[in-house]
Amino acid sequence: IQGITFMIGTIFFREIQEYIKSLRFLIGLLFIVGLVILCMHINIKDYIQRDRNYQETKFKKNIMHGVYIYKQPHVLSIFSQGKEKKTGNRVHLGESYIPSRTTGQFGRFSRQDMLFGGFEAVDFVFIVRVIISLFIIFLTYDTISQEKFQGTLRLSLANNIPRHRILLGKFLAGFFIVFVSLTFACVISLILIEINPAVSLETTDWLRLAAMFAVSLLYLSLFYTISLFVSTIINTPSIVLSVLLQIWVILLIIYPNFSVFLADTSYLLPSEDKLAEQRLTSMVNAYEIRPKLEYYELQNKCAEEVYKIEKNYENELSHMAERARNFAMFSPAVLFDTIISRYACTGIGDYERFLDKMYLYWEDNIRFKNNQAFSYGKNEYIYFQKLMNLPEYIYYPEKFTESFTGTAFYQILLILLNVVFFLLSYTFFLRKDVR
């Protein structure tokens, strides 16, 4: 066992030295460090400003217009903006209005924003998903093919070194480089956060960050195992790099966008004109039974009917997004983005949860209740008094355990993809002709 460990360790340290001495590693790491510092500086300032705006206007009451409630930006949006800035942060509640969408910031969003609108945000997750994944490809594309091309692989096997030990040593070395690169970027990010007194992380946030780090490691290691596999089956390094770049473009750009196109064309949604017609019809039907209702009870009835129509539309939109995500299930970028945004509480699921909580708040505090002694009925003064005494609402994201269980399937799929490509590399390397 000691001999086996020594042999694998020798290969491991030799490969590590080759990676560290390469100009590609130095240039790539310096570029990543500079980009991380720049993007974290910008996103920390942006978060501080958004949080300051929230603290100033988080709960507003207006006698004429009802209540405005704002969603607090999550501190982990510094790392992953997700859909948080796309979907808005404000809701308006009143006796005649129940929100099914948010406004504020960028206002209402389009179908594409609902599906994959957060991909263009330049944050830490973008750096991992795009920049570091490319860095890993450029650094490891010739792990096997270069030695085969130069003939050194045949010399290594001539010394009776088992093939599986060579592959294992190379794999461990490459995985270590992936780990070091990601850890370096994460440490710099955390240092920039810790030295800023306006940003504080709770215990739950640290748990979420640890999970995000593990998922990022899985994501990057998948690109390494893909590089290892392609480098095993193709002997010319330049061709290996060309193939890997094409695979990267397909997995990160073409495949996800094609999935959005399929979901958008295969799912027919009503137009805005059709929705407006349905809203008007529902309100007319509500007013037809007006003699049977108190004034504010009628307002509530109209609000509920309109809410049902808009909520049904939002549900259909969510189903379309889910369908697009299912179409793109084998894209590492989609898996990664889905998991990370859930852990960072900046995904579309957190947005929908916030709106569901708003409906419950409306149900408990604003709805007219004729059977209660303290109800506004026809007395507007009592209604205004009740409005001014509304309890302040603070939204709390889902628990860490809920985020973990909700993304467990996608995390398992990432692990399985890693295992599949490593086994493919192992199988083809054992059968590889090194002559």
Mean pLDDT: 83
Annotation field: number of helices = 17
Shape: elongated
Order of helices and strands: HHEEHEHHHHHHHHHHHHHH
Q: List low-pLDDT spans.
A: 106-119, 371-378
Ends distance = 30 Å
| Rg over alpha carbons | 27 Å
* Percentage beta strand: under 5%
In the sheet with the most strands, the strands line up as: 1-2-3
What composes the largest sheet? 3 strands, antiparallel
Secondary structure: number of strands = 3
How would you classify the helix and strand content by structural class?
Answer: mainly alpha
**Helicity, in percent?**
over 70%
Walkthrough of the structure:
This protein has helices at 2-21, 23-57, 84-87, 111-116, 124-140, 145-150, 152-158, 163-194, 203-233, 237-266, 272-288, 295-327, 332-343, 348-365, 380-388, 400-406, 408-430; strands spanning 59-62, 66-70, 90-93. By secondary structure, it is an all-alpha fold. Residues 106-119 and 371-378 have low confidence and may be disordered.
